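Batch manifest, entry 17 of 40.
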Amino acid sequence: MNDPFATLGLPRAYALDLKAAEKTHRELSRALHPDRYVASGATERRLALSRAVEVNEAWRVVKDPIRRAEALFELAGVAVGDTHEPKPAPSLLMDMMDRREALAEARARRDIPAVRALAKEITAREEQTVAHLGAAFERAAGDRAELLPLVGALGELRYYRRFLEEAAQVSDDLAAAS
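Output type: structure tokens
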């Protein structure tokens, strides 16, 4: 795995100033834009294009809280993914099942405010989990043993993300049907 943080010249940290990181991405993208290399040789053009692709992929990783956490775990030697992450707590599973049921009911009632309220609630939970991960990554300072217990929080983020994607789709569908 390439180090997306190094590619963008950022510290390996979960809690990042994303506005500053985005500015860095834009500056690198501008510097590597193909139009700047029109008069260059084919090799130099290919290298610039390859580097531009790498910079764009690094930005996609860094700006996404789940992919950013995955990158930090992987860079510390902690395997992540379905087969490596602990099973979610039964309470989380039950709660998400209840929320999905409430989402289905709101959809059936064509109740956009209820869909938005559910999304707002899960967004708040997602933000809390992101803040928790930021503080925990900082405390762990790349120590693999310290990071292992955090993998479960990554799973929580995945559940929240899926719910929010579903809620956005329901909201879009209801708005389009109006």
